[in-house]
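Posting this for the archive.
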Amino acid sequence: MAIGIVGMLDEREEALGLLCEKIRSRGMGTLLIDTSLGVGGISPSLKPDVSSSELARLGGIQTWGIKELAEKDREKATSALSQGLTEKLVELQACNRIKGVVAVGGMTTSTIALPALKALPFGFPKLLVSSALAMPAYAGKFSQFFGLRDITVMHTVVDTVGTNPLVRALMNNASGAICGMVEKWAPVAREERPSVALTELGFCDKGAQQVRALLEERGYNLISFHATGMGDRAAEELVGQGLFQAFVDLVPAGLSEHLLGGNRDAGPERLLGAVRSKTPYLLAPCGFDMLSCGPVERRDKADPLWVERALAQRKLLVQDAMRVQARTSGEEMVMVAREVAQRLNQHPRKNMVRFLIPLRGFSSLSVEGGPLHDPEADRCFVRALRESLHPEILVEEVDAHINEPAFARAVVEQLEQILEEEAG
């Protein structure tokens, strides 16, 4: 049972060697992978199982040595090592040659290792021991990895060079962490009960709870994702891997937030996970009726989003100093509907896609009497969606708002119809 150890031997040979010893002392094998650029201050004596030259070749570098390339174009060299490491780790994991991975280093190693760790399956033990990840300037970039994969991070506080008492303590803890995860790891089980992914948000929480309860009564496993931008990105990733029998996407608004510049932007791949994996897909429009645009101080600071979209002149819900929701316009709703249709029309099994419309309110904010009530804007969305969707994709209008039991029942009925058709 081997654990992959990733790091730059020409910078952190002593720490990596110590980590190897600690892991072997716990009865596990090691497979050392060198990500050195060849420009570090150490001439290592440790011999890696996988050299940085091999990683560079896998990353497409054929004519240059990695050191020469790093001196000429460090970004290209780093990118090649990352690509090669990704290919190598995926191969080692698929061939069952490693049971877990731990990477140790600073900013360069973190940059090289994170895409590779992200490529490994959910649940597979993966640990990054780094001195760089707490830097505020890089938090947004690194969140693209941690928000979407179960990568465990250990912040070292001090740099992991040499073998001083603090580094020894860190390597001892790192070995315990990765060995413990490997000892307890088991692949995600495929249960007899079908697993369903569900997106939800506070503005449809009652409806989501009702859907969850009805499906659990019928024997489904429900896995919920908080659709704040990062949670629905994670849903897309896992649905795209084919981990679920169906996807109930009550809050696909990470797409509209992406198109309009809102805070809950879920990225350019939103709504495409089920398309890639051919997963049965049921959607509702919660969140398309609003744009997350806080904090409220942006209103008074000539913020570009507020100015460009004239948000101060719209219906607003100011929940607190950080959270503000602005009503989306009819024109924006048409644009969103057309983009939704463009993506759903790519689904290879269009009869497995359904879109349910709660006519009395897309969210708790747009019901009659709600702060963002605008039925004409909602109708603009419905008309544009019907005009743009492929005729095989069913659009069903439900005479209820999204948090009413009648809508939850309609969601469950449609989902069961889809799954029955798939089984039959």
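Residues 2-184 form a domain with the Rossmann fold fold (CATH 3.40.50.12020). The chain has two domains: 2-184, 195-423.
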